[in-house]
Amino acid sequence: MEEFLNCHSTCTLSTASNKRVRGTPIEYNYKNNYIYLLTEGGEKFCNLLKNCSVSVSVYDNFQGMGKLAGMQIQGEAFLIDEKSREYKDVLNLRGINYENIIKLPITMNIIKIKLLKAEFIYSKFKSLGYDSKQIYYFTR
């Protein structure tokens, strides 16, 4: 599962509040059961202010039923303070210089998602003797 998350870099972040649902394609980094997203803002922030529960989807392009590979993740989202050490560490993880980010005319936010549950559909599991759908619960 970690290999799958680490070999991809784009996901769909889904947020919701009241009757508003938003799905945002966005680049991510994965480390130690957390997904990190660098973003300038948008409707997803309105939703996150009211509801920190999110869904994240990571998947391969469809190539047929025998080659399925996709993960749907449930998690809790938090904003990382831009003056914190963790903010700088995440920028380093992405290969981005902190000094360059703070010079931008807009604030670049980092959303930190604590992974809670992953539903992983992976056709290759069958050849290993397992069901193609596996569910994993992350420790809190």
Give a verbal description of the structure.
It is a single chain. The protein has 140 residues and is of the alpha+beta class. It has a single domain (2-137), classed as Pnp Oxidase, Chain A (Roll). Helix content is 23%, strand content 45%. It has 5 helices and 8 strands, in the order H-E-E-E-E-H-E-E-H-H-E-H-E. It has helices spanning 2-6, 43-50, 85-94, 98-102, 124-127, and strands at residues 10-17, 20-27, 29-31, 34-39, 53-59, 69-80, 109-122, 133-137. Strands 1, 2, 3, 4, 5, 6, 7 and 8 form an 8-stranded antiparallel beta sheet that branches. The chain is globular and about 50 Å long. 21% of the residues are buried.
Helical residue percent? 10-25%
Task: Please state the second-level CATH architecture.
Answer: Roll
Instruction: Let me know the average pLDDT.
Output: 95
For this structure, what is the CATH class? Mainly Beta
How many DSSP H or I helices? 5
Ranges where pLDDT stays below 50 over 5 or more residues in a row are none
CATH superfamily: Electron Transport, Fmn-binding Protein, Chain A
Instruction: Return the structural class.
Output: alpha+beta
CATH-derived topology? Pnp Oxidase, Chain A
Question: What are the secondary-structure elements, in order, as H or E?
Answer: HEEEEHEEHHEHE
Distance between the termini: 17 Å
Tell me about the biggest sheet? Answer: 8 strands, antiparallel
Domain Pyridoxamine 5'-phosphate oxidase N-terminal: 1-89
Protein name: Flavin-nucleotide-binding protein
Pfam family, one: PNPOx_N
InterPro entries: Pyridox_Oxase_N, Split_barrel_FMN-bd
